[in-house]
Amino acid sequence: MASERESEEISVPLPSSEDASLQATWGLGNQLFVYAADRRPAKDTNGEGSDMGHTQSYDILDLRWGQDMHGPTTRKLINESHSVFVMLQGQVTSLSGSALYNQLKEASRQYRSIAKACSLELQLLMSNTVDEGEREYYGNQVELLETMQIIWSLCEILFIDIAPGEMVLVQLLNWVRWHFSAGREMAQDVINDEIPEEHPAYWEAIFRLLLQGEIERVRKLLSLHSCSQTQPFTSVEELLKKMPQWGNLRTVSLAEFDLKWRHWREECMRRYEEGHFTAFAELERVVQVLCGDMLVFSELKDYCETWYHLLISRLLYQNPTVRPTDLAFHVQACMEEFQRAGHRMGHVDNILQAALEFDLHQVIKDSSTSLGDRSWWFGAHLTDILHHCGQIDSQKLPFGSNLREYLLLEYVAGLMSHHSLWQVGVDYLDHCPVFGKEHMKLYIENLPLDSERKANKLIHICEERDLLEQVQSICKIMGVRCSQDGRLGSALSWFLRSKDVPAATRLTEKFLQDYKENGNFSHLDLLDHMGPTMLLTQQLTFLGKYREFHRMYQEKDLKGAASLLLSMLTARAAPRHFWVTLLMDALPLLETPQVILGTSQTYELMHCLEELTQDLTRNTPTSTTPSRASSTPTPQSAGTGVTAAGSSQILSQRDLEKLKLLRLALCRNLSRSIVHEGTIVPL
Amino acid sequence: MEQPRINVKFVSQKINKIRWRPRLKQSMQQSDTFVTGSWDDEENKVCLWRQQPLLDDGSRNGMEEELLLREPELLCEARHPGDVSDLCFLTQDHIATASSTGSVLLYKHHTITQRVEAVQEWPDLHISGGRRCPCTCLATYGEDTMLSGGEDGRIAMLSPGQAAPVRVLEKADSCTINALAFLKQSEVLTVNSFGQLKLFDFRQNTDGPAQIFSATDDHWSLLCVDKHPGQLHVVATGSQDGTLTVWDLRQNRFPMTTLDAHQSSMWEVRFHPYHAEHLFTCSEDGSLWHWDASAHASLVASSGRPGGDEGPSGQQSPWLGLEASPKLEINSLICNKSLSVNSLDIEGGLLLCGTDSENIYTLSMPHLS
């Protein structure tokens, strides 16, 4: 299909040389980033890296196409039809039989009326603008929309809203009446004239209406003629009155109707041959039409404007009970009628011909390639209905899905290239069973995350569709961005949301680092209210507990604070690099007038201190170039899960001084507690 | 219950916020002008609309057709840098907007020439690590005080005519502030993305909140807040998981009632300004709900009438202790499933909402006018 599409050549303002080749990367939807890349093989280039890295500093071009459908009026078309589409898909799953069939007919009419509304609005815009270019643009858009409606209505008559009893002509007449209104407008002018019969368009109006089977209106116009009471006029009036109308004869069968009609036509012919009307040439022509005279239709073809109007008009007077499948036999003659007059057959003619020949695939194929930028809208929605009507065989196309899905995906690509219609696109992808989900994943990964609000909306979309990996990735992007900007609180809330343990762990490190540098906690509103969420990672639990320790200390619950501190150390919950800080936090607790830490607790602390010092001495590099890799975790730390990276630090001189001080304080506290507890009674 | 009459207008822009112009003080006249702000477009807009009244007073023939709502008509529009994340009428013709570019703008609506134009901008109010952070919410008090909150967790107090912020609370929040509401001139409520409701007291000199309330242990982000028009201790918030929480700020231990509501993010919650026993919520799932506690209210003997401040201690609100009450009626107002309903506002008997399906719904609820 794609190969048959009209191609357009664009020259790209990029330097071309033997060394540079044109490269491209897909953007979102109908968007391509084009740049010149070095052709010479770089030594470390393999297939996937070749479009990156070794480009010279050429420009990158942002090419987009199919953006014409992004105008404000088209957006109404898109959004309105979106709601019809979504509702219809629901009905397809919930209804069946005639209930579903009625909904499909209804949806088809709704799509058409949406297109009509859109076209009317464009006409209004066209009449309000003075800009010549704009006027032309709107004019083209209106024409395109009208064309779509002509094709759609015909397809609706032939494939969707199929008339019972195969009397297709009544609907086809309505179709030409709806799309060719010149006759009615002329008639209105004529009626408003003081002397109608002298209006230059008097007879033209009559013929146009006659060709559309508007018998009542024709009779009305004829009755305005000054000679309307003369015999020829009353004769025609009688014939017109007698003309069998299918609408009034619903109860009869097709065969009965045919019989009645043949009788009536014989009478027309008889009167014509008797020469009742020779006094009035125009009146005679009217009767010729009634008789279905071949020649007169050729003469009047300009009043039909198009071959398909002529087709319907001819059938009306020559073969009103034509079966839908026989329509095709009459197409060629009518087309030739116009071709002889120098008309060239265009896309629309071919599409309508294909429809009348019941070649649906050709209709959709040609519509998709030739109806401009809205063709995907047209193709996707029409094909969807036809598919559900069972008119299109749902065979797989060579690329793995059926025609309906292929067209929906093309339509979605257009939506996704728009800045803000991606939400609509997502709903369409839901109804593409084969590739929908994969396409959705790719689109979602490429949507820019401008604000938390947008991120939340995207997450909602993903969660509804079980795209958990994408949720993780969105949370991670948002969290990392917050963290880079120094908004650690927000970052944490994103990682907690996606339960992202590694990211939360790294972030907790930042919090601890922050504390070590500033000596106090920020983000208290967060840390103090984490609740059970802190259990997500060991690090975070430690952070929460450590903050609790500070609060207890501030609230003068020294005993509680001391035992919490000790439990953090003995449970090895703290990262090793934080031990110095933790141990130093014990210092004030050792210096209080009351003894807070008992002997066993003091022993524990001494043990921890010793463990840390040994650890550090073992790891302190003897060479002059300390390297991260040289540090190995101690057996204990490896066993208890304390991160290895934490123990690689090297203590500053100041820290060492502090630890000495701590050792002293521990000793003093030990002796005080021994006395206090009376565990060793002096002899 | 009578179904409201609905008009749907497609406007070719995703509506993020919609607000009625407040009616003039002491006026009984239903406001007929509203403003919308779009989002996520290449060029976003602030638009003013007029909603024709429901009925021509002269032609009340009892004809069904005449009761049809007319379409809102566009009065004027102006470009807006970035998404319009929030909108407030500061005065009858001044509109403040919050932008996703981190700035706050003030627009003036010239009612005679029907033009709207930006008259003041406070650029880069919300910035973090050198990067612009979306300004997410606005609140006004009187005609000269505005507050903005942002994803950077800052609150800025602005005064029209003054280029610099009057005051900035640098560390008001560790997370994103999603919505603001004035409780009194000196007290402001905020909700954040960590599921907290905070009370700030501007008489204090600290940046921190006077009180923090947590909604749930799951820390679902709170997205919107509205205070009861009459009872200052009653506050409603909506959360990311779609639940509605009604808070009693007088209680410290168990301050809230949580009601399961929408299937996804609740973007906005509003008490009816004159009939506070009616509440409206809208959600990402495309629904718009009407919560009617009037049956419950008549049960609660001395229900607070609008306008009364915190009355005698025995006073009860129908919104507190709702879990136990079967008397709460909930109606879904939009039948057609659409994309997210982002914003709603009610003034008298007319309810507006704006959606991501690029349409504006006008619903008439005459019994609430």
Structure description:
The complex is a heterodimer of chains A (683) and B (369). By secondary structure, chain A is mainly α. Helix content of chain A is 63%, strand content 3%. Chain A has a three-stranded antiparallel β-sheet with strand order 1-2-3, with no helix packed on it. Chain B has a domain at 171-285 and 287-303 and 317-329: Methylamine Dehydrogenase, Chain H (7 Propeller). In chain B, strand 20 and strand 21 (234-239) form a beta hairpin. Chain B has one helix at residues 294-299, and strands spanning 5-10, 15-20, 33-38, 44-51, 72-80, 84-89, 94-99, 104-110, 115-122, 127-128, 131-132, 135-141, 145-150, 155-158, 167-169, 177-182, 187-192, 196-201, 211-214, 222-227, 234-239, 244-248, 256-259, 266-271, 278-283, 288-292, 329-332, 341-347, 350-355, 359-364. In chain B, the strands form eight sheets. Chain B has a four-stranded antiparallel β-sheet with strand order 1-30-29-28, with no helix packed on it. A four-stranded antiparallel β-sheet of chain B has the order 2-3-4-5, with no helix packed on it. Chains A and B meet through helix 1, helix 19, helix 21, helix 23 and helix 25 of A and loops of B. Chain B: Residues 300-320 are annotated as: Disordered. Chain B: Pfam families: WD40. Chain B: One of its GO terms (cellular component) is nuclear pore outer ring. Chain B: InterPro entries: WD40/YVTN_repeat-like_dom_sf, WD40_repeat_dom_sf, WD40_rpt.
